[in-house]
Amino acid sequence: MSLTDHFDRWSPVVACVAIGCAALGALATHVALTGAYVLVAVVFGVGVPIGLRDAVPVYDRIAAVSLGVYGVARLAVTGVWRLDGVTCAVVGAVALLELALSRV
Q: Would you write out the chain's pLDDT as a tens digit for each of its 104 residues?
């Protein structure tokens, strides 16, 4: 089996997001932000191999919900309505609504 059987063109991107969030989680000053970064790092870390990403049928929505958790934590910690926190929170809310509606 070659590496192309386990990884695709999105694997390096997902891995970079996971590593970046893990590094930011280690540098975060607030516990809520550390938890949010670790959550995003774990969710995106699971998505690096094709097999694990395909094993979760709604992986893309779960990844978006984890970004929403980060956005809400960012807004709660900073107390300032910054564009990155608002954008991530809206993406997460839409993904959560889409996930709930797909299960009904």
A: 677 778 888 889 999 999 999 999 999 888 989 999 999 999 999 988 988 888 888 888 889 999 999 989 988 888 777 888 888 899 999 998 998 888 77
Tokens describing residue 20 = 């970046």
Please give the backbone phi and psi of residue 10, each rounded to the nearest 5 degrees, phi first.
Answer: -85, -15
Task: Please state, in angstroms and as integers, the Cα–Cα distance from residue 84 to each residue in 1, 48, 71, 89, following that order.
Answer: 40, 24, 7, 8
Of 17, 32, 36, nearest in space to 77 by CA: 32
Closest CA to 37 of 73, 1, 89, 86: 73
